[in-house]
Specification:
496 residues, alpha+beta, 21% strand, flat
């Protein structure tokens, strides 16, 4: 009986202690939850951002320029809304949002240029969150500027050796290669001390390196070569000190032309540096690629456009306005349909025959030349081609072309006839095989077919630039002959 009472009392005491322990544990858990909620709140760590990065808006785009922001900080953004206008290597394209939220922070301002792909340009937050408490991402790890550059050679005395012979100063006008000029200017060396070994006295990169090795202090300046002394005249005052450097010989050009000063008239030898846009840089790259990798062949023919001129006048009476260039586009498309062996492109493994006929037309804009595309031109009428060409040309000048409106194409046409150019040769737009250069029309008197009199012909010169790997001279000649027949007889295009 006593043992039972003792066990019961111990059980009650154990139960009371367990209850107190649970209360302590529950209080600790509540404190932990409160602490965790405090540290995860927006007031401490900030709101997790939605990152907006520089996108690739064209296949050849490597960097872009931000032209204008269309959303402000704190403004609501819905999926599909325009965030900003970005200048790519082709045109100015509007960047749309992929998420709903609020614009929290603009990291790259308007007018910023040469922004690489993937660069963080803005931050957004989700709807309902405080955009002012957005969490800023850590800055990218950059090389520490405190890292000292490698010690120059002059810091440690070189081993004892025979002194190098003093180089002979170069006389006469200096001619330096770009690499030699860069080395000499970077190390403060006088180019007159270099021994020229290049053709016609050209100072090469090796000459500059030899002078650098012979000048450990890298700040060697040539002694001033004073003119021979002349007998002072009795009336002359005391001679002034010699100038710091002898004037360059007449006819020589400066080594590095000085920069022109804004607001002051340019002096001989000055220049003004003009920053190149993305479009200009891409045009330069593609033109260089075309002329260095594509074997261009040229063929020229004169076309009589009198029938086209007459047909235009008849259509104008019915309020249908079309240009000669619209007929040229139609004639080229129909000829490509009749000769599919010309409707090809070049790739690394050979020729690719295309199933569609998309004609690219060259349009000059303030940003550079761009080639919007008239798709399926062979299956469209001249009036529809005219409407498409006007719409695409206006969008190109406004910088509003979509990527699908200028990418691709199987054949290009460049028309300078409206500028009075009689004939020219255009550069092929890779990977296309041909481009047709069109000049202005002119009137010429020729013998009639029966050779009994004269007749007036309205002639227009067109030149076909073709890729010799794909279109040989015989094929190019047949193409131009058929193109001329289609243009001189517009009714043939309707039948074809």
């Amino acid at each position: 009986m006593a043992a039972s009472l003792r066990l019961g009392r111990q059980g009650i005491l154990f139960g009371l202690r367990l209850t107190q322990f649970n209360k302590c544990v529950w209080g600790l858990q509540s404190w932990q939850e409160s602490t965790r909620h405090f540290f995860q709140s927006a007031h401490c760590l900030g709101v997790a951002p939605l990152k907006v990065q520089m996108p690739a808006l064209s296949p050849t785009m490597a960097e872009g320029n931000i032209v204008k922001w269309l959303k402000k900080e704190g403004e609501a953004v819905a999926a599909g809304d325009a965030l900003c206008e970005i200048e790519t290597d082709k045109a100015v394209v509007t960047m749309d949002s992929n998420d709903d939220g609020v614009m929290a922070k603009i990291l790259i301002e308007e007018g910023s240029r040469n922004i690489p792909l993937g660069t963080l340009i803005a931050l957004m937050v989700e709807e309902g969150q405080d955009w002012k408490q957005v969490e800023m991402p850590p800055p990218e790890a950059a090389a520490a500027p405190s890292e000292a550059p490698p010690a120059p050679q002059a810091a440690t005395p070189p081993p004892a050796q025979a002194a190098p012979p003093t180089p002979k100063p170069t006389s006469g006008p200096l001619r330096l290669s770009p690499a030699a000029r860069h080395i000499l200017d970077s190390h403060g060396l006088d180019p007159k001390l270099a021994t020229a070994t290049g053709p016609r006295g050209l100072i090469t990169k090796e000459d500059a390196m030899n002078l650098l090795k012979a000048s450990p202090d890298a700040k060697l300046i040539s002694p001033v070569v004073a003119p021979p002394p002349t007998a002072p005249s009795p009336a002359a005052p005391t001679a002034a000190p010699a100038p710091a450097a002898a004037p360059p010989p007449p006819g020589s050009r400066p080594n590095v032309p000085p920069l022109s000063v804004p607001g002051k008239p340019g002096t001989p030898g000055t220049f003004t540096e003009i920053p190149a846009t993305n479009i200009r840089r891409v045009i330069a790259q593609r033109l260089t690629q075309s002329k260095t990798t594509i074997p261009h062949a040229y063929a020229t023919v004169d076309c009589d456009v009198a029938a086209v001129m007459l047909l235009r006048k008849e259509l104008a009476k019915e309020q249908i306005k079309v240009s000669v260039n619209d007929f040229i586009i139609k004639a080229a498309a129909v000829t490509l349909k009749e000769m599919p062996e010309v409707n090809v492109t070049w790739s690394g493994d050979g020729a690719h025959e295309l199933d569609t006929i998309h004609i690219a037309i060259a349009v000059a804009t303030d940003r550079g030349l761009i080639t919007p595309i008239i798709k399926d031109a062979a299956n469209k009428g001249v009036q529809e081609i005219s409407a498409n060409a006007k719409m695409l040309a206006q969008k190109a000048r406004d910088g509003k072309l979509l990527p699908e409106e200028y990418q691709g194409g199987s054949f290009s046409i460049s028309n300078l006839g409206m500028f009075g150019i009689s004939g020219f040769s255009a550069v092929i737009n890779p990977p296309q095989a041909c481009i047709l250069a069109v000049g202005t029309s002119r009137q010429e008197l020729q013998l009639s077919d029966d050779e009994q009199g004269l007749r007036t012909r309205q002639l227009m010169t067109v030149t076909l630039s073709s890729d010799g790997r794909l279109v040989d001279d015989e094929l190019a000649s047949r193409f131009l002959d058929k193109f001329r027949a289609n243009l001189e007889q517009p009714q043939r295009m309707a039948v074809a």
